[in-house]
Amino acid sequence: MANEPTSYQVEKSDAEWREELTADEYAVLRQAATERPWTGELLDESRAGVYACAACGAELFKSGTKFDSGCGWPSFYESVDPAAVQLIDDTSMGMVRTEVRCATCGSHLGHVFPDGFGTPTGDRYCMNSVSLDFTAADDAGLK
């Protein structure tokens, strides 16, 4: 796993993040909270498009890598580019997990697990809906 970088491309003060993000976004993106399962608005999103960091807008996942893992959070089997996300050892809550952060701004997105059975990578990027913004391919003028 990678260690935390000393700086990110997008850096803001805690006050700036609090001003720009909703209370739920701030709790997840900046304090590593987790939204309740089955409540995220992107869980059942099935249109073609791109998922970006809700804090800085960096592109993170494409809809073609999203799959129904049955875990209650949007799941993807890979990021748009390995450099788009940062993987960090997480031993909080008495568990050993791999935290996923936006590599551009350091915001918490969720965790990745090696149980994406049946996917090309075997990975399950279990993301919080509130940490992502979705742009449908039609809305972005993409085909």
Listing every helix as H and every strand as E from the N terminus to the C terminus, the arrangement reads: HHEEEEEEEEE
Helical proportion, percent range: under 10%
Counted by DSSP, the helix tally is 2
How would a crystallographer describe the biggest sheet?
6 strands, antiparallel
Features:
three-stranded antiparallel β-sheet; mainly beta; six-stranded antiparallel β-sheet; Metal Binding Protein, Guanine Nucleotide Exchange Factor, Chain A; single chain; 143 residues
Mind sketching the topology for me?
Blueprint: H1 14-20, H2 23-29, E1 49-53, E2 59-62, E3 66-67, E4 75-76, E5 85-90, E6 97-102, E7 108-113, E8 124-127, E9 132-136
Antiparallel strand pairs: 1-2, 1-9, 3-4, 4-8, 5-6, 6-7, 7-8
Please provide a written account of the structure.
By secondary structure, the chain is mostly beta strands. The chain has a single domain, classed as Peptide methionine sulfoxide reductase (Metal Binding Protein, Guanine Nucleotide Exchange Factor, Chain A), CATH 2.170.150.20. It has a 6-stranded antiparallel beta sheet, with no helix packed on it. A 3-stranded antiparallel beta sheet has the order 2-1-9, with no helix packed on it. Strand 6 and strand 7 form a beta hairpin. The chain is globular, with a radius of gyration of 14 Å. The relative contact order is 0.24. The mean pLDDT is 93.
